[in-house]
């Protein structure tokens, strides 16, 4: 969670958009390959990951390296989550469409339906085709009625998923460095759930989720309150926004053994921002940067900031 504060008029309802959590590369299982080190940098503007893999065996190993993009997100009618026009469409890089693990790309294309879709009347292909074609899609399990409040509503049953894939040769008795970087798809809110009057509302009760997901503690909350007080005026509440960044860290357990050396750097952007995430051993190494270094690290959960 990153909080930035400005002076504004009284707070209205919070609008928000969701982050899309990306992760590291996935290797086809090989008991011979080890992950010697992982150096991970996370910020709103850029994510970089620097790996060193080792092949200690006396033979070259060729394996598939895949960098999975997230499944195309589905908007929910009863939330404020929205992706707008920046829908996660990586179709220019090749794709697969799966329902319960079944590749249905050819079926979707044969019906003239788009692989990528959004949960709106404009983006839902079943909102503008005939009942006969809808019935056909339902019979093929390519469509479903997923909202009991709107029993006539039909949506696609698939998600578009893209993998960037390449074959990599790991020479015998060698180490290879693999790097990738991308601009993350962050989420945020206009306002937030950490205002004192909101977080102390027993009916809303969002604070428990923040403590669990982001490890927000009392020290962090005190910092929020100090900043709000500094930018508030009589009759006018200071304004706070939130930014959320997710990273699928659990994929680091996909190879043989623990990560020998793991280094994480989180950059909160501005010295005036507050940042919180679930990781022990955090050290501040600059005005905006925080570092975690671990040996023989086996990630058990993903990272939410």
Would you mind describing this structure in some detail?
The chain is mainly β and 305 residues long. Helices cover 13% and strands 35% of the residues. The protein contains 5 helices and 22 strands. The protein has helices spanning 105-110, 131-139, 196-199, 207-214, 218-231; strands at 2-7, 15-17, 22-23, 26-27, 34-42, 47-55, 61-68, 96-99, 102-103, 143-144, 155-156, 159-161, 163-170, 174-182, 187-190, 238-244, 246-248, 259-267, 274-275, 283-284, 289-297, 303-304. The protein has a 6-stranded mixed β-sheet with strand order 14-6-5-18-21-20, with no helix packed on it. A 5-stranded antiparallel β-sheet has the order 2-15-16-1-19, with helices on one face. β8 and β9 form a beta hairpin. The chain is flat and about 60 Å long. It starts with a strand and ends with a strand. The model is unreliable at 1-19 and 75-97 (pLDDT under 50).
Provide a concise account of the structure shown.
With 305 residues, the protein is mostly beta strands. Helix content is 13%, strand content 35%. It contains 5 helices and 22 strands.
């Amino acid at each position: 969670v990153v909080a930035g504060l400005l002076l504004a008029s009284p707070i209205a309802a919070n609008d928000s958009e969701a982050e899309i959590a990306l992760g590291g590369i996935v290797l086809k299982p090989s008991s011979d390959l080890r992950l010697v080190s992982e150096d991970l940098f996370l910020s709103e503007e850029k994510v970089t990951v620097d790996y060193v893999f080792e092949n200690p065996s006396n033979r070259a190993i060729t394996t598939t390296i895949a960098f999975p993009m997230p499944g195309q997100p589905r908007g929910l009618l009863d939330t404020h989550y929205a992706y707008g026009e920046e829908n996660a469409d990586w179709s220019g890089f090749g794709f697969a469409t799966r329902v319960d693990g079944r590749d249905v790309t050819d079926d979707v294309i044969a019906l003239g339906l788009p692989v990528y879709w959004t949960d709106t009347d404009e983006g839902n292909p079943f909102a503008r085709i005939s009942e006969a074609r809808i019935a056909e899609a339902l019979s093929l399990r390519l469509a479903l009625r997923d909202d009991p409040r709107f029993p006539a509503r039909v949506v696609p049953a698939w998600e578009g998923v893209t993998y960037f894939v390449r074959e990599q040769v790991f020479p015998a008795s060698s180490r290879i460095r693999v790097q990738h970087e991308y601009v993350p798809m962050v989420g945020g809110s206009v306002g937030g759930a950490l205002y004192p009057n909101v977080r102390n509302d027993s009916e809303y009760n969002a604070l428990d989720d923040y403590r669990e997901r982001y490890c927000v503690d009392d020290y962090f909350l005190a910092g929020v309150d100090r900043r709000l007080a500094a930018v508030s005026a009589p009759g006018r509440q200071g304004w706070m926004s939130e930014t959320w960044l997710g990273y699928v860290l659990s994929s680091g357990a996909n190879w043989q053994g623990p990560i020998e050396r793991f280094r994480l750097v989180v950059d909160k952007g501005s010295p005036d921002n507050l940042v919180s995430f679930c990781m022990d051993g955090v050290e501040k190494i600059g005005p905006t940067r925080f570092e975690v270094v671990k040996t023989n690290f086996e990630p058990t959960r993903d990272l939410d900031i």
